[in-house]
Amino acid sequence: MSGKYDRIKLVLQDDFAKLQDANILLLGVGGVGSFCLDCLYRSGVKNITIVDFDTYDKSNQNRQMWSELHENEVKVEALKKHYPELKIINKRIDEAWVMAFDFEPYDLVLDAIDDRNAKLALAQKCYKKLISSFGSAKRLDPTKVQVGDIWKSYGDKFGSKIRYELKKRGFKKKYKVIFSSEEAQVKAKGSFMGVTATFGLTMCAEAIKEIRKQKIV
């Protein structure tokens, strides 16, 4: 009888055990974060803590995993119904929360939030274990999604503001970001699942890449 993880084990081989031992913190479970979460979980990562404060509404249903089943429910509580092993924190992620939170227990911190000041605080506090998503809205071409270090990212006004503010704060370290080189198609904050999901799946793939690099103690 075949098992749930047989196919991913064929790809990862001995590194599959590293996924099951990894301790991941995922900040934000919207259009990007929800697909990242699903990808991590289906790949064998079970020790995942998610943080979000929001509830599902109809506007989420074009791009967020499970949203159509849980309208008006708290996101983290709804997602735990689908991923029972999850640890959940129902909190707004702002700069104060980032500064007060203990990131030490986690192997990776995955940033899928929109708050600029919180993103800046994350970069300064835990850049060594951070993978951060820039803007996925307003775009239609998933083939333009890229991965690079913060200082080599381009084509994204939100990312440009992050780089500018980090420079102002004297921050010169590198960390990995996911961004799109596609020019925004509209001014309004519209979203296409083909792009937001690609951001989330790319974040998952980059997380798995980093987990595989880690040495087993």
Q: CATH superfamily assignment?
A: NAD(P)-binding Rossmann-like Domain
- The stretches of 5 or more residues where confidence is low (pLDDT under 50) are none
Q: Gyration radius, to the nearest Å?
A: 17 Å
SS class: alpha/beta
The CATH architecture: 3-Layer(aba) Sandwich
Task: Report mean pLDDT, rounded to a whole number.
Answer: 94
Taking strands numbered 1, 2, ... along the chain, how are they ordered across the largest sheet?
3-2-1-4-5-7-6
Query: What's the shape?
Result: globular
Descriptive overview:
This protein is of the alpha/beta class. The chain has one domain: NAD(P)-binding Rossmann-like Domain (Rossmann fold, 3-Layer(aba) Sandwich). 37% of the residues lie in helices and 14% in strands. The protein has 8 helices and 7 strands, in the order ααβαβαβαβαββαβα. A 7-stranded mixed sheet has the order 3-2-1-4-5-7-6, sandwiched between helices. α6 links the parallel β4 and β5. α3 crosses α8 and α6 packs across α7. The longest helix has 21 residues.
What does this entry show, briefly?
37% of the residues lie in helices and 14% in strands. By secondary structure, it is an alpha/beta fold. It has a single domain (6-213), classed as 3-Layer(aba) Sandwich (Rossmann fold).
List the SSEs and their pairings:
Layout: H1 6-12, H2 16-21, E1 24-27, H3 33-42, E2 48-52, H4 75-82, E3 87-90, H5 95-100, E4 108-111, H6 116-126, E5 130-133, E6 145-149, H7 157-168, E7 176-180, H8 193-213
Parallel strand pairs: 1-2, 1-4, 2-3, 4-5, 5-7
Antiparallel strand pairs: 6-7
Helix pairs in contact: 3-8, 6-7
